């Protein structure tokens, strides 16, 4: 699904990504972990085509990303902070997105029901809570049943019921052989949702593999402790 080879990104003298190579299988759910400033966001922006790498290649579904943008139609993206025009309603925003696409939004109704948004979409977005705006982002990202779903801190602001429904949605996505990338600081969420984790520190991948492999490598039973142990080793 995704092949990243020797990816390097420099902003002036600052190196955000250093020789990153990574393979992500179709139908997998992968968690991307790292401290603030580790390079997680830069990696996601490179995947989305929002940032051009200094060197290296990214291949999605066999196509090398070289400035083309058609591949983005197969990606759904939920940013960490959802920002919408404040005077528009949720329904109006959904209609705008639908007007930009030719294919039908096959999962729109299902996701609106799943996240209990029916009575919220008539409101202007400035009146919506942060969690409700996050759920609107989920609908926009998932309603075209994307092959790749990228979620940046997706549980931020969600109530417990919506959190459970999000995890069910991710599970459904996996069962349909769709691919999911998640960045989060909440280790308990990762342990329930992901198949593999990627740990980035100072722009370099320090671990990529199954959670059980990380636990074996660090000798820890809890994911959050295993991640902390690895971070401590790297800082030493």
The biggest beta sheet reads: 6 strands, mixed
Termini gap: 35 Å
Instruction: Report helical residue fraction.
Output: 25-40%
Q: For the residues shown, what is the average pLDDT?
A: 91
Helix vs. strand class: alpha/beta
Q: Roughly how many Å is the radius of gyration?
A: 18 Å
Please report the number of helical segments: 8
Number of strands: 10
**Strands in their spatial order, largest beta sheet:** 6-7-8-3-9-10
Taking pLDDT < 50 over at least 5 consecutive residues as the criterion, the unreliable ranges are none
Portion in beta strands = 25-35%
Q: Tell me, briefly, the overall form.
A: globular
What is the helix/strand order? EEEHEEEHHHEHEHEEHH
Can you walk through the features of this model?
With 236 residues, the chain is α/β, with parallel strands linked by helices. 36% of the residues lie in helices and 26% in strands. The protein has helices at residues 40-48, 90-100, 108-114, 130-142, 160-175, 187-193, 211-218, 223-235, and strands spanning 2-11, 14-24, 29-33, 55-60, 63-64, 75-78, 148-152, 179-183, 196-201, 204-210. The strands form two sheets. It has a six-stranded mixed β-sheet with strand order 6-7-8-3-9-10, with helices on both faces. The longest helix is centred in the last third of the chain and has 16 residues, at 160-175. The mean pLDDT is 91.
């Amino acid at each position: 699904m995704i092949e990243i080879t020797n990816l390097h990104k420099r902003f002036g003298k600052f190196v955000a990504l250093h020789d990153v190579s990574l393979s992500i299988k179709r139908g997998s759910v992968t968690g991307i972990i790292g401290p603030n400033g580790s390079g997680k966001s830069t990696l996601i922006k490179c995947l989305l085509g929002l940032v051009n790498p200094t060197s290296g290649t990214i291949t999605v579904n066999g196509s090398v990303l070289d400035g083309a943008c058609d591949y983005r139609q197969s990606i759904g993206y939920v940013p960490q902070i959802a920002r919408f025009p404040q005077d528009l309603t949720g329904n109006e925003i959904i209609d705008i997105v639908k007007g930009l696409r030719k294919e039908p939004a096959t999962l729109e109704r299902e996701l609106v029901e799943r996240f209990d948004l029916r009575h919220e979409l008539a409101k202007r977005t400035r009146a919506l809570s942060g969690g409700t705006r996050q759920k609107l982002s989920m609908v926009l990202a998932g309603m075209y049943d994307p092959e790749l779903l990228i979620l940046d801190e997706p549980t931020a602001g969600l109530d417990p019921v919506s959190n459970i429904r999000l995890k069910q949605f991710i599970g459904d996505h996996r069962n349909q052989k769709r691919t999911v990338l998640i960045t989060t600081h909440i280790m308990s969420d990762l342990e329930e949702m992901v198949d593999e984790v990627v740990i980035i520190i100072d722009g370099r991948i320090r671990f990529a593999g199954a959670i059980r492999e990380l636990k074996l490598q660090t000798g820890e039973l809890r994911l959050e402790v295993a991640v902390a142990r690895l971070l401590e080793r790297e800082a030493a």
